[in-house]
């Protein structure tokens, strides 16, 4: 890292670190099989990377993702936040002393939510984020919007925001992510992007570490390429993988954000290239306007 970049964000002087594992998991049709696979994945991560402290899975990872085409299936695989999946993973969170974040089709009093659950190392539910900016298919399947644009929590003293997939296509959510001074953003996905347009855009927007988890493989007629990424507050992609079911481990170092002047300089440094990125990809932006 250059001297100037160290000035903007000096990771070597960081006082907070966390080792994360982001996953691209191939989902089976049967949620029981997916729950078993999640357990196996976590056990493998810890076996080969015992320093991992946070494991993230993608959006509604307990089944195939096709709410508009298969609403009855999605209701059938839905379960309470306090159901079998959370209980099973809570045991692992406590056993290994780690945080686990995973997506679930939540059933609450007859209502459906696209939810992301964060378990802490004590095996307790620390945070729940219900997706607020639903896709058309989710509306067809009668999912309800969550009330929070971004769910705020703290992991090892790190201010963390949790969002799900198209949440970040909402201008209000973008604004909340920018003004909330998050150090870490967890972004779970059911996303079929193959390039880094969205990754580059978000990396330049939020002045935070951003980690994404996704799904991979064929689900009926739908193929998910499994793009997972880790980006830093300077807008750089630190980790990227696509085209395979796998997990990716990375140690994040959180530098002191510095003076207001340093924040301004850092934002200029990151956002000027972002402007050119947006101009170059104008056709990709128009559907969001």
What does this structure look like?
- With 289 residues, the chain is an alpha/beta fold.
- It has one domain: Carbon-nitrogen hydrolase (Nitrilase/N-carbamoyl-D-aminoacid amidohydrolase, 4-Layer Sandwich).
- 32% of the residues lie in helices and 31% in strands.
- It is built from nine helices and 13 strands.
- Strands 1, 2, 3, 4, 5, 6, 7, 8, 9, 10, 11, 12 and 13 form a 13-stranded mixed beta sheet that branches.
- The longest helix has 21 residues.
- The mean pLDDT is 94.
Shape: globular
Q: Spans with pLDDT under 50 lasting ≥5 residues?
A: none
**CATH fold naming:** Nitrilase/N-carbamoyl-D-aminoacid amidohydrolase
Q: Major sheet, described briefly?
A: 13 strands, mixed
CATH superfamily: Carbon-nitrogen hydrolase
Cα Rg: 18 Å
Write down the domain tally.
1
| CATH arch. level architecture | 4-Layer Sandwich
Order of helices and strands: HEHEHHEEEHEEHEHEEEEEHH
- Percentage of β-strand residues: 25-35%
The CATH class: Alpha Beta
Mean pLDDT: 94
Descriptors for this entry?
about 290 residues; alpha/beta; 13-stranded mixed β-sheet; globular
Put the structure in a nutshell.
The protein has 289 residues and is α/β, with parallel strands linked by helices. The protein has helices at residues 3-8, 31-48, 71-77, 84-96, 136-140, 171-179, 197-205, 260-280, 282-285, and strands at residues 16-26, 54-56, 99-108, 111-119, 125-130, 151-155, 158-164, 184-188, 209-219, 222-225, 228-231, 237-241, 246-254. The two termini are 36 Å apart.
């Amino acid at each position: 890292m250059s001297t100037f970049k160290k000035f903007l964000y000096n990771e070597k002087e960081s006082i907070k670190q966390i080792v994360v594992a982001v996953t691209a998991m191939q989902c089976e049709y049967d949620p029981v099989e997916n729950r078993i696979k999640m357990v196996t994945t976590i056990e493998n991560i810890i076996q080969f990377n015992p320093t991992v402290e946070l494991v993230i899975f993608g959006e509604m990872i307990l089944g195939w993702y096709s709410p508009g085409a298969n609403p009855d299936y999605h209701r059938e695989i839905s379960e309470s936040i306090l159901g079998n999946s959370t209980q099973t993973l809570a045991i692992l969170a406590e056993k290994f002393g780690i945080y686990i974040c995973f997506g679930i089709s939540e059933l609450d009093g007859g209502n459906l939510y696209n939810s992301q659950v964060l378990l802490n190392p004590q095996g307790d539910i620390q945070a729940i984020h219900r997706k607020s900016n639903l896709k058309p298919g989710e509306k067809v399947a009668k999912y309800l919007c969550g009330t929070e644009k971004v769910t705020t929590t703290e992991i090892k003293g790190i201010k963390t925001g949790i969002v799900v997939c198209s949440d970040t296509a909402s201008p209000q959510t973008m604004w909340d992510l920018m003004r909330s001074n998050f150090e870490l953003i967890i972004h779970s996905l059911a996303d079929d992007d193959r390039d880094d347009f969205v990754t580059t855009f978000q990396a330049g927007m939020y002045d935070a570490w951003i980690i994404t988890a996704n799904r991979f493989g064929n689900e009926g007629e739908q193929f998910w390429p499994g793009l997972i990424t880790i980006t830093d507050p300077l807008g750089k992609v630190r980790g990227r993988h696509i085209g395979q079911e796998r997990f990716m481990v990375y140690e994040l170092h959180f530098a002191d954000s510095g003076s207001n002047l340093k924040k301004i300089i850092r934002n200029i440094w990151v956002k000027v290239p972002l402007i050119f990125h947006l101009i170059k990809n104008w056709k990709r932006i128009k559907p969001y306007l």
